[in-house]
């Protein structure tokens, strides 16, 4: 199966899977594949109940509901990818653009994370992201980045969780911690680590998620064409 056939198969499956689980699928699912990961970019993905929650300023309930559904959905997606495409995802990350009803799901291929290529501005992007991470948590033990497509940049960090965050996770406050980190870190990444300014591109979307068990994080920058 070539890449085009793989993307077509996965796109169809994910659209149906999301419709089954959420009651309403996204208007579009764009799938992007590179050596390091597979990314699902969702547009206009918001059901009536979710819209109601957000109009009532209940973003916490919105995210909690999606978290529950994603926890049951991702094992199915992982199994489908392995059985039907041979893609072995070691970890998933996801985030939602509440302001524009978008979302991103990222599946990382762990064996390929040490095979990224250099690109103009890479070290400058890393420096800015490291500075933001250090201001909020600590200097990452490892950072890397790669272009998924010419308009999508992935930034991977490892070894960034501080003791207080680990304790919050142990006490069962993972979602509270993620909510706080998303609000603060995404704002600082946009303002103080603006990859678009470094790369001479216009930023349109930004997604971030963390795997506290592995002490890893993914940030996805999406730019205009």
From TrEMBL:
Segments forming domain Na+-translocating membrane potential-generating system MpsC:
11-109
Pfam families on file: MpsC
Q: Under what name is this protein listed?
A: DUF2294 family protein
Q: Whose protein is this, by species?
A: Saccharibacillus brassicae
């Amino acid at each position: 199966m070539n890449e085009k056939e793989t993307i077509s198969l996965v796109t169809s499956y994910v659209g149906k899977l999301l419709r089954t689980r959420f009651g309403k699928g996204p208007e579009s699912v764009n799938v992007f594949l590179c050596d390091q990961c597979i990314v699902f970019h969702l547009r206009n993905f918001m059901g009536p109940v979710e819209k109601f929650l957000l109009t009532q300023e209940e973003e916490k309930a919105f995210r909690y509901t999606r978290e529950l559904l994603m926890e049951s959905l991702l094992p199915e997606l992982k199994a489908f990818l392995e059985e039907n495409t041979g893609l072995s995802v070691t970890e998933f990350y996801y985030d939602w653009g509440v302001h524009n009803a978008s979302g991103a799901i990222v599946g990382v291929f762990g064996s390929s994370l040490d095979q990224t290529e250099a690109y103009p501005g890479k070290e400058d992007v890393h420096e800015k992201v490291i500075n933001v991470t250090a201001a909020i948590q600590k200097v990452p033990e490892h950072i890397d980045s790669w272009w998924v497509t010419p308009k999508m940049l992935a930034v991977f960090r490892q070894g960034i969780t501080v003791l207080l965050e680990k304790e919050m996770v142990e006490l069962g406050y993972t979602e509270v911690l993620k909510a706080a980190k998303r609000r603060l870190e995404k704002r600082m990444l946009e303002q103080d680590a603006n990859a678009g300014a470094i790369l001479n591109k216009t930023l349109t979307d930004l997604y971030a998620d963390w795997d506290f068990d592995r002490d890893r994080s993914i940030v996805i920058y999406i730019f205009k064409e």
